[in-house]
């Protein structure tokens, strides 16, 4: 079966699983209207567990085919492509991992909604960089593209799971004044993940920066703190 036929087979199966009613709901949920963060995105209406099943079914497709699927106009196709790239990454040698990481960074325009970022950045960026210089994260955090900035902070989730927090805190500092709510939520979420593992590290960061944080970022970051402590942050009375 040639390259084009494999993609056509996958997309025929995706089309057969489409649910127009669910697609309409997803297009509202993911803000696809004019001027919204997901403007113009198209949905088939397929649930994520179904896509994960398809990723297992098609896990042996060539890397090039998964890459081509990433360029589809349909959101679910791109999510499936990312799940396939992760499978290739997990099973691949160093040369394959280098290629996948490079391809991902060259096609961030296709990783263009928060769920796509969150499903892929920890593995395809964070895991790749864990023992390497982190200049890529600094560059992404300074990008004019919302999704590249989200990739920068969400990629550090991989480091957090290894109990390494410095890069999360460094990227969080770079994004403290970001104008986008989706970045506020992502940074707050990562700070909360740090707090779950090392409260003192997260609190030291919060005490230094909480007055500069957008409210949403702060609320996400302190969500798991005791109520009295949470209120102290919200009221600005933490020493």
Architecture blueprint of SSEs:
Blueprint: H1 3-16, H2 20-29, H3 48-57, H4 63-69, H5 75-91, H6 94-106, H7 114-129, H8 135-141, H9 146-154, H10 157-161, H11 166-174, H12 181-197, H13 199-209, H14 215-221, H15 227-235
What does this structure look like?
This protein has 239 residues and is an all-alpha fold. The protein folds into 2 domains: 1-112, no CATH class; 113-239, Leucine-rich Repeat Variant, CATH 1.25.10. 67% of the residues lie in helices and 0% in strands. α3 (48-57) crosses α5, α5 runs parallel beside α7 (114-129) and α12 (181-197) runs parallel beside α14. The longest helix is centred in the middle third of the chain and has 17 residues, at 75-91. The model has no long low-confidence stretch (mean pLDDT 95).
